[in-house]
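MODEL INPUT / OUTPUT PAIR
PAIR INDEX: 1
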Amino acid sequence: MARPASHLIEKYNIIEQFQRLNIRSIINMQLPGEHAHCGPPLDPGSGFTYSPQIFMDNDIYFYNFGMQDFGVSSLVSMIDGVKVLAFAVREGRVAVHCHAGLGRTGVLIACYLIYTLRISPSEAVHYVRIKRPRSIQTRAQLSQVSDFARLLGT
């Protein structure tokens, strides 16, 4: 999903929608302060377009695994993100976002699919792109998905 913003969370009752859909966690792949001049203003306390506290105050877990836009993280960080996502899925549905919900979000979800389903990188990327066209945007991101699979021995 694309990044939420405080005014949209309120306008569209995002908290109520999350609760109704059993979305129990939100994973943010952005770095604080990212895209400060693009779209809604950043929350001064969090550096994001929303305060994570609004989710946590409503029993929705918040996790942040920030990486550069159009970039990749270390494989160790990706493993951490995938493990947290796997844990969060056992608790309920999970919303994952970056800025547009395509690159970094797609990489995390593809790696999660490889980890949980033991599918190939190409199958994981294909599945993610069917659900969210244009996901996983750069060669480096595609390489990270393949490197993650190699690390797992799949």
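PAIR INDEX: 2
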Amino acid sequence: EPLLRQREEVARLYRQRQACRSALEALGRDSAERERRMDLLVYQLEEIQKAKLTPGEEEELLQQEKLLSHAEKLQSLVEGAYSEIFAGSGLGPALLDRLSGALSALQEAAAIDPGLQQAVGLVESAVTQLQEAAYDLRDYRDRVSFDSGELAAVQERLSQIRSLKRKYGSTVEEVIAFARQVGEDLERLRNSAAEAEKLEKELAGLEEELSGAARRLQQLRLEAAARLSAAVRESLDQLSLPQAQFEIRLKEREQVAPQGVDRVEFMFSANLGEPVQPLAKVISGGEMSRVMLAIKVILAQQDRVPTLIFDEIDAGIGGVVIQSVAERLAHLSRHHQVICVTHNPQIAAMAEGHFMIYKEEREGRTVTRIKALEDQERKQELARMLDGGSADPISLRHGESLLERAERFKKNL
């Protein structure tokens, strides 16, 4: 998308310009301020360098701390497993001895019936693997030991790393990157005069680049605004607002921001002959629901988001209008998952699935529940929504007709 790429380019140039300005301002301070700044940077750099951090070190230390903290338990568990395999217990012989006995019996049986050779092979493999597991457990048992001094050293190192992270970054890698940046800042301060001249030229170039990029972004926005305005007007016509006017206007900022030089404003008029005004000032609740639906439908066609959620999209509207909204949502659901939170039976009837949210008391507390409705339950719920609480035969028939009408509409999509 050219517009998004251009916006990213403006943001990138803006960040570069701000960094250049900040560097130039730092160089422009008086010598005493510069010396104080250098002292701080030297302190920060030395503190980090003395720690001799390495990427991934903290993760390794955390694993060591975990192992050392549980060394005695690990040793006990592994020793128990090893003993069961090799030495057995008071309840019987060792597991390896029992398995070896089984192997001997099978080998003797296989000499009589060769059909048992596959079983012999499997048990032989099990004996070998069990022996290897026992050797591994023995080595692990001998290797693992509780060393309070080593644990204290690991915890002290972790404390040092956490202290540095609180000051200089959220990860070890960020702290290392901070030290690298501090070193560059120190070098820049030590060569401030030449650096200032270089930065001034760089800043002038960046200002020119940023201005040009912002103008190109503005032009792309004007073109996109015209397309989006026309698409929204067309969509509003399908949502029973045939006389509505919708425009997107760009107001220019005094200075370029990371988003460009423009402020975007939506303008709206619901009736023919009325001038468009800022949408937030003149739009009603029902009109806002339809405008937001129109915009979401259009944007969803561009970015292909998998799921769209509408909360109370039916607010302030009803009758024929709500039916047009329901049909628009059905169109949208052909390419997206659409979830609606609604109290309106026409919108609920158009859905493929209907879930009822309700509250109940349980053990002295109020809890919220959600239930997927089956066919008959759905008809009853639509009847309740239509009649405000009850589900008499007339309401049930009306609910069924809503479902039938919705199914006919969806079949023709």
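PAIR 2 NOTE: The longest helix spans residues 192-238.
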